Amino acid sequence: MSKKIKTPWPTKAAMTQIYDKHLWGGNDFDFYSGEGSHKPEIIKPYLKHVISFLNAYETPLTVCDLGCGDFNIGKHIVKHTKTYTAIDIVAPLISRNTTIFKADNLEFLCLDIAKDVLPKADCVIIRQVLQHLSNNDILNISKKLIGYKYIVLTEHIPTGDFTPNKDILSGQGIRLKQNSGVDLLAPPFNLKIKKTTILTEYKLPNNKGRIVTLLYET
């Protein structure tokens, strides 16, 4: 009997199901991007450091948010930018965000960041997005990141030493159970950057890893 091969589900369908079935929690919300976008102890330090970085420039930066989710975090950052383009693959989520969040410098786009051409900007924000994607999707995205001067990347990774970039299927889960996490500087991505700064790090209780935000300058 031939072995059944597990084939990847299209990323758009996988992400749409996550929101439709509230697989990241938040049953009382219409759309919910998980605790990493809502728990105060996680998002308050993040916002403090990212906003401080953005405010350090006399001329405000243009920002592109890849995987903006329910926009519970992005809504606080918009006013600190020249323009803010928020992108997600889930069309109903983008329609909802467009209705709720309004600003002259804010635009929402429904795009597949692994396949579509991305808008130009000074800075790209990617918050806990790559951790849910296959290596092939991440590789396609990483090739586009060199077009941005600054990359603000947040990933949920194990505590202590781990093996980077074990492959998964794009979807709800992440690499943590495999003692792995995304490292764009390691193979197979090998992103070339000039400088790395740790903006913030939050260690989850019960040895459930850490959420680290890095600033890359390309």
Count of helices? 5
CATH topology: Rossmann fold
Count of domains: 1
Structural class: alpha/beta
Helical content, roughly?
10-25%
Low-confidence stretches: 1-9
Oligomer state equals: single chain
Order of helices and strands: HHEHEHEEHEEEEE
* Distance linking N and C termini: 50 Å
Walk across the major sheet and give the strand order.
3-2-1-4-5-9-8
Task: Give your account of this protein's structure.
By secondary structure, this protein is α/β, with parallel strands linked by helices. It has one domain (11-217): 3-Layer(aba) Sandwich (Rossmann fold). 23% of the residues lie in helices and 23% in strands. It is built from 5 helices and 9 strands. The protein has a 7-stranded mixed sheet, with helices on one face. Strands 6-7 form a two-stranded parallel sheet. This is Class I SAM-dependent methyltransferase.
Q: What is the strand and helix layout of this fold?
A:
Blueprint (H helix, E strand, L loop, with lengths): L10 H10 L19 H16 L6 E5 L7 H4 L5 E6 L2 H10 L5 E5 L12 E5 L7 H11 L4 E8 L5 E2 L15 E2 L13 E9 L6 E8 L1
Parallel strand pairs: 1-2, 1-4, 2-3, 4-5, 6-7
Antiparallel strand pairs: 5-9, 8-9
